[in-house]
Amino acid sequence: MTPAGLHRGNGNAPGAPGGPDPDSPGADGPGQEAAGPERSDPDRAPATDEDPFLARRLAMVRDLRATGPRDPDVLDAMARVPRERFVPPELVRYAYDDCALGIGHGQTISQPYIVARMTELLELPALRRADPSRRPRTLDVGTGSGYQAAVLADLGADVISIERDAGLSELAEERLGSLGFGDRVRCVVGDGTEGWPDGAPYDGIVVGAAAPEIPDPLVAQLAENGRLVIPIGPREYQALTVVTRSGRRIEQRTYDPCVFVPLVGRHGFPG
């Protein structure tokens, strides 16, 4: 059972193998609608021949807006990226449920709430608003299906996405390329706890697996005022944690409780 109030990221979904997580809650507590221009009403957006999932995608965004994530740019990206393309064919009907889904290789795609929340905590849209010509450099640790990388790329970021499973990385690279993100996302294979020094420094680093403590190499690869978003805690449960770097000063804040699979590597959990 997922403890009450926890949000499920790339966690092992209980129940039928690879199926939806019956214990995974949505975000708890009502929230305020995101500020900004009026968004499309998902109840008035029927499926079309061109995009049969449009209505469900917009309904997902409506639910996200009501339960927590408020950045309109992040929500717009979630409305554009086709989540159904990142799940196995037999699970497409669950693509817009707010739960983690199995993607094979013992991994899952995080629930939409967690993807939106972690992306929001990176604060990439603020960088773009300050300098529209700037493409924030971002490291995505734990490629998985490639969905998180796609959302980051849709927001205008240049993304390096690192995955320790070469098979998953190859599949994600093909999927991202077919969706038009190939020029904005570079998929690499390696130990995510070590980061990817060749692409540093990064304006944002997002980690899709839980670490017992903050990996020093990831902090070292942050740009000035860069942000690292990572679940920190024991294997059973964690808290979303944001680390910011300003000169030699490192600040750390904790946010939502969550459950992720362990981040395996030199600076994470043992394999």
Provide a descriptive summary of the structure in words.
With 271 residues, the protein is α/β, with parallel strands linked by helices. The protein has a single domain (7-259), classed as Vaccinia Virus protein VP39 (Rossmann fold, 3-Layer(aba) Sandwich), CATH 3.40.50.150. It has 7 helices and 10 strands. The chain has helices at 54-67, 72-80, 112-122, 124-130, 147-154, 166-178, 216-220; strands at 7-8, 101-104, 107-109, 137-141, 158-163, 185-189, 202-207, 222-232, 238-246, 249-259. The protein has an 8-stranded mixed beta sheet.
Blueprint (SSEs and pairs):
Layout: E1 7-8, H1 54-67, H2 72-80, E2 101-104, E3 107-109, H3 112-122, H4 124-130, E4 137-141, H5 147-154, E5 158-163, H6 166-178, E6 185-189, E7 202-207, H7 216-220, E8 222-232, E9 238-246, E10 249-259
Parallel strand pairs: 1-10, 4-5, 4-7, 5-6, 7-8
Antiparallel strand pairs: 2-3, 8-9, 9-10
Helix pairs in contact: 1-2
Can I get a quick summary?
The chain has 271 residues and is α/β, with parallel strands linked by helices. It has a single domain (7-259), classed as Rossmann fold. It has helices at 54-67, 72-80, 112-122, 124-130, 147-154, 166-178, 216-220; strands spanning 7-8, 101-104, 107-109, 137-141, 158-163, 185-189, 202-207, 222-232, 238-246, 249-259.
